[in-house]
Amino acid sequence: MEVITDAQIALFVQQYFLPFARIGALLMTMPVIGTRIVPARSRIVAAFFLTVMVVPLLPPLQVAPSLSLGTAILVMHELLIGLALGFGMQVVFQVFVLTGQYLAMKMGLGFASMNDPTNGVQTTVLSQFYLVLVTLTFISVNGHLLLIEMLLQSFQTLPPTQFQFGREQAFQVVNLGGWLFASALVISLPVMTSLLVVNMAFGVMSRAAPQLNIFAVGFPFTLMCGMLLVWLGLGTFGMHFEEIFAEGFVFARELLRLKP
Questions:
Q1: Model's pTM, two decimal places?
Q2: Which of 3, 72, 183, 191 would disulfide-bridge 229, Cβ 3.0–4.6 Å?
Q3: 25 contact partners, CB below 8 Å, separation of at least 6
Q4: Domain boundaries, the chain
Q5: How many CA atoms lie within 13 A of 215 on its CB side?
Q6: Which residues contact 112 (CB under 8 A, 6 or more apart)?
Q7: Rounded to 5 degrees, what are φ and ψ at 115?
Q8: Which of 44, 49, 52 is nearest to 26 (CA)?
């Protein structure tokens, strides 16, 4: 009977399980594929086949003792790389969701919420509209394939057992928070400024004609103006999509240390 040695187990873990951990972490968190709509079994199977294709292209890895603290730390680093990349691209998607939240609250549509099937949370109707629009655009330009390609390229720049997820990479992920709110505000600022002018005009009207029911007239008019401005703003959606996702892929390349 053939006996499986400790060295063989260590070689299997480092040749297959480490790349599988990085790829699987990305597929579990990335947009579109990592949503709750895609079954977890399908993502695991996809990660398995990608790992089988990637491992023959990797250089020989340094063998470490299996079932040790060092091996567990290596697996954790691989998981952090995939999770950070997937989380970063999720933040890019949330820029447009937050834009919808800003506009909905300014227009008076904050009460019109619905369940987001991809994340399992309650979002405004306008946020859901932007999320569907950006998801379809992302798939149409093969953004999900480009993201997977970048991860596969990272095995050349960040080979397993030779890279540690440190403070620099953690700060890159943390800095996405400020960029998220700033980018969403820049996109929604034209509509919010226009609605502010409309509200100021109604404020002047309420002072000039106190008998006018400003709530009965102002709310539907503000809502119609907001919807009109959102419709007009769709003409620049492609430009905003290109800028935001360009910055998102710059973050991914810097995280994975890929050349531009």
A1: 0.82
A2: 191
A3: 78, 79, 80, 81, 82, 83, 86
A4: 6-256
A5: 0
A6: 104, 124, 125, 126
A7: -80, 130
A8: 44
Look up tokens 């909905």; give the residue. 104
Tens of pLDDT, residues 55-108: 887 776 665 656 667 777 888 888 888 888 888 898 999 899 889 888 888 887
Read off the DSSP letter of residue 158: S
CA distances from 84 to 53, 220, 242 (A): 23, 43, 21
**Residue corresponding to tokens 């960040």:** 158
Say how far apart CA 51 and CA 35 lie, in whole Å: 21
In angstroms, the CA 29 to CA 252 distance is 14
Cα–Cα dist 230/201, whole Å: 20
Q: Which two tokens stand for residue 17?
A: 């399980």
Rg (CA), the chain: 24
| Spatial distance between the Cα atoms of 6 and 25, rounded to a whole number of angstroms | 26
**How wide is the angle at C-alpha 81 spanned by C-alphas 13 and 96, nearest 5°?**
145
Q: What is the pLDDT of residues 12-69, one digit of tens each?
A: 767 788 888 889 998 888 888 887 788 888 888 988 898 888 888 777 666 565 666 7
